[in-house]
Automatic annotation (TrEMBL):
Organism: Smittium angustum
Matches recorded under InterPro entries: Integrase-like_cat_sf
Record-given protein name: Tyr recombinase domain-containing protein
Gene3D superfamilies: Intergrase catalytic core
Origin organism lineage: Eukaryota, Fungi, Fungi incertae sedis, Zoopagomycota, Kickxellomycotina
GO BP annotations, alphabetical order: DNA integration; DNA recombination
GO MF, one annotated term: DNA binding
Top-level lineage group: Eukaryota
Length: 220
């Protein structure tokens, strides 16, 4: 066996290499995020009751990912039977969310508020989707057969079809709806601590290195 082979098989070498990989600093992203084309598209589409099933589904998934700072797997696991709607907000539960506590999957409560404009309101999109398409749990259904559920890949594609409207830059094809949500929240002046809490992340580093698209802020 070569001397190099001995080094490769040395446990200390293996552990040090693993540590180096895990401590690799992610390059700071600075993607120009302009969602005005998405806003204009939603305006052009009109009210929810005028949307095709495909457009309604894509819009609903995107709004929930952005406004609820939700993973694709969260949207896939919405438990409709215990959803609660009030005059001000929608409270729903994600069953067996990706987050774990003491090694066990948790049920995660998420709250979304109404928007003054029906066209941009995630709850209005939810209500239209529920009345027209959703037949139970899982909440997101196959568009050709509402009795069938869809995979997380399908939900991801629904969200991507909206997100890519933001730019012709290929970067946007890889942007997560959740990343759009937290970036817009930061841009609006919401504190990093609050965003980390909403995202249910263990540290600010996760937000900065994996979800925050730009450090630009705005008072608008």
């Amino acid at each position: 066996m070569s001397r190099f082979g001995n080094v490769k098989n040395n446990q200390g070498f293996i552990e040090n290499l693993k540590a180096l990989k895990e401590s690799h600093i992610q390059p700071q992203k600075n993607i120009e995020l302009d969602i005005s084309p998405i806003i204009n598209t939603f305006i052009e589409w009109g009210t929810n009751n005028k949307l095709s099933n495909k457009r309604l589904t894509r819009k609903f998934c995107w709004l929930f990912a952005v406004c609820g700072i939700m993973r694709i797997s969260d949207i896939h696991r919405i438990e409709e039977t215990i959803t609660r709607l009030s005059l001000e907000r929608l409270l729903f539960t994600v069953v067996a969310a990706k987050e774990r506590r003491q090694g066990y999957a948790i049920n995660k409560a998420i709250e979304i508020s109404f928007h003054d404009n029906e066209i941009f309101c995630p709850i209005k999109a939810y209500l239209e989707y529920k009345s027209r398409i959703a037949t139970g749990t899982p909440f997101i259904r196959n568009l050709t057969d509402f009795t069938k559920a869809v995979t997380t890949d399908t939900i991801s594609n629904h969200i991507k079809e909206i997100t890519k409207l933001a730019s012709n830059d290929n970067h946007h094809k890889r942007i997560k709806g959740r990343a759009v949500g937290v970036t817009l929240a930061a841009r609006a002046g919401i504190s990093t601590d609050d965003i980390v809490t909403l995202g249910n992340w263990l540290s600010q580093d996760i937000f900065d290195n994996h979800y925050r698209l730009t450090r630009a802020t705005s008072s608008n």
